[in-house]
Amino acid sequence: MVVVGSTAPEIDLEDHAGRPVRLADYHHKSSVLLYFMRSATCPVCNSRVKELARRNAEFVAARVQVMVVIPEGRAEAANWQAKRRPPFPVVTGRRGTAHEAIGLAKKVLGTMQQSGSVLIDEAGVVRHAHAATMPTGGYDRKGIDLAIENVRAQAVR
Q1: pTM (2 decimals)?
Q2: How many domains does the chain have?
Q3: Is the pLDDT of residue 156 over 80?
Q4: 3-state class of 47 per DSSP?
């Protein structure tokens, strides 16, 4: 898993339409919160995305671009995006999974994809990194909120 305080790796992402998404494009514009779903069909992960969507105005005000990361690939990401219509990008890995690139492994005999979240500030530094094998632990709201608050406080200085 990526380490808080480290430079974020450039993950090879694409959106649901196949367009490349580069985290570096957000440097000096906004922080990026990547929410890694265990799978597009995970009911717990889907409920977490609904909460992120309800909070979207907060994220916009804090200059945080949320992205939902789906491990199954572009076709599934496109289907999921069309069905759910979140107010933020749905992305997946262009080659391999973005989950692997950030350090989220498959646990429990290699069958259960970890979920989690990573907040990258405007300078490209990881400010929050959280992983969980059980989907109920994949969304660390308190940790995310604290990291956003810390990023905002640093920007004021």
Answers
A1: 0.94
A2: 1
A3: no
A4: helix
